[in-house]
Amino acid sequence: MRADKRKVVIVGTGMVGMSYAYCLLNQSVCDELVLIDVNKKRAEGEAMDLNHGLAFANSSMTIYAGEYDDCRDADIVVICAGVAQKQGETRLDLLKRNAEVFRSIIEPVTSSGFNGLFLVATNPVDIMTRITCTLSGFNPRRVMGTGTALDTARLRYLLGDYLKADPRNVHAYVMGEHGDSEFVPWSQALLATKPILELCGENGEAVCRQRFDDIEEEVRTAAYKIIEAKNATYYGIGMALTRITKAILGDEHSVLTVSAMLRGEYGQMDVFAGVPCIINQNGVQRVLPLSLTPEELEKLGRSCDTLREGYDGIF
Ligand code: NAD
After folding, report:
1. Which residue's CA is the nearest one to ligand 1's atom 17?
2. C-beta of 179 in contact with ligand 1 (< 6 A)
3. Where is the Lactate/malate dehydrogenase C-terminal domain positioned along the sequence (predicted)?
4. Fewer C-beta neighbours within 10 Å, C or N terminus of the chain?
5. Is 124 annotated as a binding residue?
């Protein structure tokens, strides 16, 4: 029996933070859940609401609105605080406002003596993750963002739908910035062990390839479409955060496309970007370098340049 409690702290109890919290509760992912928000009353209300669902949950969980001191013995601090993306606004537009929010969060978390992992969802997520790493002074392997985890899930769903196959048997990734410069390395996309591009028979090749490009565009613009329809996206990201949390707390060594610092992989240095990584209880155990084509490497390079420019603009 585990003696230690699996403890998660969420900073930012808005739509994303609480979709994540609700998912953690429904999947019984941790034992103790702390909610922190600049709007303390909101965090308290959310804690009450979740606690009232405990009678229907699969297992018990201690849930309360807390303080930064509560981060001291947490396994993961998950940051969902910030300003939500508005219609027509790019993720990079949010950067300056959210950088200020992070200055007010990271310092009290580290001052508490926190010695766990940071997981970041706030947009623009790759840059906010790098800011978290800089402000905390933590080893970059202990700081990760949701990166292209959600985009990858959207891609697998759409490909599964098109190929009439279970998305769980579709192995394909979205890489780079969680944003406009993200891309799909099609040379690495597989259905079971069959390269997806080989599924385009000789006669149907043009049609098939065009459909893949459409799917890639659909993934890239999904957030804009959802925001246009309902102002914000939160369920999908809540589930992506939960999946990453399970990989960490379960020491799973699962491959997930989180935002991780590149230190020479793909020829890139000192940039956080969405890449397939092996995730375990220590965080990013390692970045898994895929065998990208020269064209795909160029796309990743351009995406990383965009992210470096965004970061350099504020630090
Ligand atoms: P929201 O406005 O509903 O919630 C944000 C919360 O942060 C609010 O409760 C607010 O009080 C809190 N907050 C603001 N400043 C704070 C501070 N200094 N300290 C503590 N708490 C503070 O927004 P949301 O819809 O939950 O979105 C949150 C973030 O997640 C946004 O940046 C959004 O763009 C991002 N997001 C990321 C992804 C992804 O794939 N990574 C997907 C969807 C949304």
Report:
1. 38
2. no
3. 148-309
4. N
5. yes
pLDDT number for residue 1: 46
Q: How far away, in angstroms, is 87 Cα from ligand 1 center?
A: 15
pLDDT of residue 189 exceeding 70, the answer is yes
Pick the CATH number of 147-311 from 3.40.50.300, 3.40.190.290, 3.90.110.10, 3.40.50.720: 3.90.110.10
14 lines ligand 1 (CB under 6 A): yes
pLDDT in tens, 202-242: 555 666 889 999 999 999 999 999 989 998 899 999 999 99
Q: Is residue 178 flagged as an active site residue?
A: yes
Encoding tokens for residue 244?
């990453």
**Domains of the chain by residue range:** 5-143, 147-311
